[in-house]
Amino acid sequence: MSEAVQTSSAFTPRVFSGIQPSGGLTLGNYLGAMKRFVDTQNTGVQSIYCMVDQHAITVWQDPENLRRATRELCAGYIASGLDPEKSILFNQSQVPEHAQLGWIFNCVARMGWMQRMTQWKDKAGKNSQNASLGLFAYPALMAADILVYHATHVPVGEDQKQHVELTRDIATKFNHDYKVDFFPIPEPVIEGTATRVMSLRDGSKKMSKSDPSDASRINLTDDADTIAKKIRKAKTDPEALPSDVEGLEGRSEARNLVNIYAALSETSVDAVLAEIGGKQFSEFKPLLADLAVDKLAPISTEMARLMEDAAEIDKILARGAERAREIAAPILKETYKIVGMVGA
Ligand code: AMP
Ligand code: TRP
């Protein structure tokens, strides 16, 4: 990450990323996003992390659940190691500049671009006529999230790469149409061994909070016993573990568990295989379960503690929103000027 942040563009490096408060957090969110946010924060680059509640409501959210999930996500960020003083931590709807710039980007982005988005196709499914207009426009709001801060780097999991590429297209078209060099062309940062954590029940599917099977994922709120049980029951194949990466070819479940082990222990897949190559899953799974409990149980305990004081979480979010607006407001104002809006 630090290397990536040092390269690219004339803009000051600034990191932005977001997670939807649309239910529980999974090991996929933790390894693919949150843990990497913490690593980035500790490189000293200005980092801005958002709970994207306006993205969450592109599909139905029960209001009470949304409120709870937003606070829980904030608790999850902090319990994972984000420091709300070092990073800016806030909720999207409390910074209206996102939606305001999002509207302008709705007018820059083309229908055809949106129609190509795989997340749109997956989520809208066969009944796309009945999907919300917000779900279709979702990537334009995501572009606004990033560009309203002139962010240059966007750490995300593999599934979000296409959306960051669309953000680049929007920034490029805006700069071109208005003959300015105003928005940076942000880079997706997708690195590490866990940018795509797979389901524990099916190595071809992404681990997701929306999977109907709870056994398919590890939730950050799972207790130690549940974590250990889910790992013990994870789908595997009958072979022993290989000693090199080539040996994981065509073995998606084995690859997934090894990747998780490498990411949690902060080593490479090669190093893990050197250690566990030749072992049976019956020997490897307890090692993985111990490691997962060791790393995740403290996060779940700390989340539960933070969730006891909703008022404190709301205070952190309000302060974060204030700091975020200090950056976003002048960038939006300048955008309005470029576009020709009177009063800006
Ligand atoms: P979401 O929960 O869909 O808002 O995703 C928030 C962040 O977590 C995004 O950066 C995703 O790419 C990342 N993420 C979600 N699920 C996974 C997964 N199974 N593996 C890796 N990253 C993930
Ligand atoms: N679309 C992202 C997801 O579903 C969440 C998101 C919204 C995001 N805005 C963002 C991620 C801006 C990175 C940057 O996971």
Automatic annotation (TrEMBL):
<feature type="binding site">
    <location>
        <begin position="28"/>
        <end position="29"/>
    </location>
    <ligand>
        <name>ATP</name>
    </ligand>
</feature>
<keyword id="KW-0067">ATP-binding</keyword>
<keyword id="KW-0963">Cytoplasm</keyword>
<dbReference type="GO" id="GO:0005524">
    <property type="term" value="F:ATP binding"/>
</dbReference>
<dbReference type="InterPro" id="IPR002305">
    <property type="entry name" value="aa-tRNA-synth_Ic"/>
</dbReference>
<feature type="binding site">
    <location>
        <position position="145"/>
    </location>
    <ligand>
        <name>L-tryptophan</name>
    </ligand>
</feature>
<dbReference type="InterPro" id="IPR002306">
    <property type="entry name" value="Trp-tRNA-ligase"/>
</dbReference>
<keyword id="KW-0648">Protein biosynthesis</keyword>
<protein>
    <recommendedName>
        <fullName>Tryptophan--tRNA ligase</fullName>
        <ecNumber>6.1.1.2</ecNumber>
    </recommendedName>
</protein>
<feature type="short sequence motif" description="'KMSKS' region">
    <location>
        <begin position="206"/>
        <end position="210"/>
    </location>
</feature>
<dbReference type="GO" id="GO:0006436">
    <property type="term" value="P:tryptophanyl-tRNA aminoacylation"/>
</dbReference>
<feature type="binding site">
    <location>
        <position position="197"/>
    </location>
    <ligand>
        <name>ATP</name>
    </ligand>
</feature>
<dbReference type="InterPro" id="IPR001412">
    <property type="entry name" value="aa-tRNA-synth_I_CS"/>
</dbReference>
<dbReference type="Pfam" id="PF00579">
    <property type="entry name" value="tRNA-synt_1b"/>
</dbReference>
<dbReference type="InterPro" id="IPR050203">
    <property type="entry name" value="Trp-tRNA_synthetase"/>
</dbReference>
<feature type="binding site">
    <location>
        <begin position="20"/>
        <end position="22"/>
    </location>
    <ligand>
        <name>ATP</name>
    </ligand>
</feature>
<keyword id="KW-0436">Ligase</keyword>
<comment type="function">
    <text>Catalyzes the attachment of tryptophan to tRNA(Trp).</text>
</comment>
<feature type="short sequence motif" description="'HIGH' region">
    <location>
        <begin position="21"/>
        <end position="29"/>
    </location>
</feature>
<comment type="similarity">
    <text>Belongs to the class-I aminoacyl-tRNA synthetase family.</text>
</comment>
<keyword id="KW-0547">Nucleotide-binding</keyword>
<dbReference type="InterPro" id="IPR024109">
    <property type="entry name" value="Trp-tRNA-ligase_bac-type"/>
</dbReference>
<keyword id="KW-0030">Aminoacyl-tRNA synthetase</keyword>
<dbReference type="InterPro" id="IPR014729">
    <property type="entry name" value="Rossmann-like_a/b/a_fold"/>
</dbReference>
<dbReference type="GO" id="GO:0005829">
    <property type="term" value="C:cytosol"/>
</dbReference>
<dbReference type="GO" id="GO:0004830">
    <property type="term" value="F:tryptophan-tRNA ligase activity"/>
</dbReference>
<comment type="subunit">
    <text>Homodimer.</text>
</comment>
<feature type="binding site">
    <location>
        <begin position="206"/>
        <end position="210"/>
    </location>
    <ligand>
        <name>ATP</name>
    </ligand>
</feature>
<feature type="binding site">
    <location>
        <begin position="157"/>
        <end position="159"/>
    </location>
    <ligand>
        <name>ATP</name>
    </ligand>
</feature>
